[in-house]
Specification:
The protein is mainly beta. It has one domain: Cathepsin D, subunit A, domain 1. The chain is 6% helix and 54% strand.
Length: 123
């Protein structure tokens, strides 16, 4: 189980540990974004710090209708106590947890300031 909190801006936030093949393990705060269908986003600076290999590029359509291209990196995320290797889009925003990361999990959010966020694997 992964637990987090709803921040003052009403964003569900979890703290995750991420690591690349040659970089140190680093904790990040990531916002759960149910409108994002990828696994994870990280900043380009974090991808470089982790030493994550560039896997290619990805295109996305943002909420405002604009299309953008992202570099995609291979990263390990400590998820349910186990390393999980995923593709992370490099974006210049706060890291996001997307719907593919939440696949086969239940998400519960108490929607209030400092509300509880729980991500739990389905049995």
């Amino acid at each position: 189980m992964i637990e987090g909190v709803v921040n003052a801006a009403y964003e569900p936030v979890v703290v995750l540990t991420v690591q690349g093949p040659s970089g140190p393990a680093t904790e990040i705060e990531a916002i759960i974004d149910t409108g994002f269908n990828g696994f994870l986003t990280v900043t380009p600076a974090l991808a470089a710090e982790l030493g994550s290999p560039l896997e290619g590029t990805s295109r996305a359509t943002l909420a405002d209708g604009s299309e953008v291209t992202f570099d995609v990196y291979d990263v390990a995320v400590l998820w349910d106590g186990q390393p999980r290797y995923v593709l992370a889009d490099a974006a210049g925003t706060t890291p996001l947890v997307g719907m593919r990361m939440l696949d086969r999990h239940n998400l519960n959010i108490d929607i209030e300031d400092e509300g509880r966020v729980i991500i739990q694997a389905k049995e």
